[in-house]
């Protein structure tokens, strides 16, 4: 995908970019995120500025939430299973946000 260096890229750009990586490489959204950080940002959050990086993280979070939608109904899976899932997600979410917190 061509990048215009004139301004900050939008979240919609990264939604498309992450989905493209996910589909073309047949990988998870987490793996797509890692690939994008390597290939697009070159492991440098400031490569295209903090606004662009934040929008990248916003897009990643949106895609992550879409994946979790089936688990929102705790009764369907039982409260204990849902609690364990939610605790694991919260722990993972903190790990995912750490690079963003350092970049801003």
What does the model show?
The chain is 71% helix and 0% strand. The model has no long low-confidence stretch (mean pLDDT 77). The chain is elongated, with a radius of gyration of 15 Å. It contains 5 helices and no strands. It has one domain (17-103). The protein has helices at 11-25, 29-39, 50-68, 74-77, 79-103. With 104 residues, it is an all-alpha fold.
SSE topology sketch:
Elements: H1 11-25, H2 29-39, H3 50-68, H4 74-77, H5 79-103
Helix pairs in contact: 1-2, 1-3
Instruction: Tell me the helix content.
Output: over 70%
- Total helical segments: 5
Q: Report the sheet with the most strands, covering strand number, pairing sense and barrel closure.
A: none
What proportion of the residues form beta strands (DSSP E)?
A: under 5%
User: Low-confidence segments, ≥5 residues, pLDDT <50?
Assistant: none
Supply the helix-strand structural class.
Answer: mainly alpha
Number of domains: 1
In angstroms, what is the radius of gyration?
15 Å
H-E string: HHHHH
Query: How much is the average pLDDT?
Result: 77
Q: Write down how many β-strands occur, each being a DSSP E stretch of 2 or more residues.
A: 0
Q: Categorize the overall geometry.
A: elongated
Spatial gap, N to C terminus: 25 Å
Output the keywords.
single chain, about 100 residues
Task: Give a short overview.
This protein has helices at 11-25, 29-39, 50-68, 74-77, 79-103. The protein is mainly alpha-helical. The chain has one domain.
């Amino acid at each position: 995908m061509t990048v215009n260096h004139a301004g900050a890229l939008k979240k919609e750009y990264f939604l498309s970019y992450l989905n493209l990586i996910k589909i073309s490489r047949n990988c998870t959204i987490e793996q797509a995120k890692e690939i994008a950080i390597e290939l697009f940002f070159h492991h440098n959050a400031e490569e295209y500025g903090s606004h662009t990086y934040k929008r990248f993280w916003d897009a990643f979070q949106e895609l992550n939430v879409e994946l979790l939608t089936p688990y929102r109904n705790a009764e369907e899976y039982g409260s204990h299973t849902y609690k364990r899932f939610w605790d694991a997600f919260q722990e993972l979410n903190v790990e995912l946000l750490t690079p963003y917190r350092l970049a801003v």
